[in-house]
Fold this protein.
Amino acid sequence: MKGSLIILGFFIIGLIGGIYDVFPQWLLNEELTTYALFVLMFLVGVSIGSDKNAFYVLRKINVKVVLVPLVVVVGSILGTAIVSFLLDDIKVKEAMAVGAGFGYYSLSSIFISQISGKELGVIALLSNIFREIITLVAAPLLVRYFGKLAGIASGGATAMDTTLPIIVKFTGKEYGIVAIFSGIVLTILVPVLVTMILEVL
């Protein structure tokens, strides 16, 4: 949770600084976001590729466990599509793209900002940060009332890292493998699905 609050804090500092024009002009260069995206994608690849445990999990995984990230994908995108009908200013595909962030706020918000503008990027950033925070805070209740897979589904892409300890604590170590597998799959799918939803649909 501390990491999420730090990210949110930096976002607020940047927002206030931008409003009061306290930062140098070169920081407003659009190319910086593109370069940051390249670096982020590289680091994600390095992170997944160097995690030997991740590949061990993939070898040992039960076929039925593949359904976990699949259900998270369908539930997240379908849920945000339904919510979009209650919101006047957000199109269905924009809401679906936000949902396709699966809690991976840094990557999804950059992609969405570049394709659909900074306003939707901010919405994606905040909603996906809140998804992670809700998982960290409400995991015990989610597991108690909705079953042991609920915490993994709520965590989305973060189930492989930041929310993994809390998921394991309330579901057991055997579900840690499921969480890591689901998180890896969703992390890989974020840039693919976000781009497809916004540019193809």
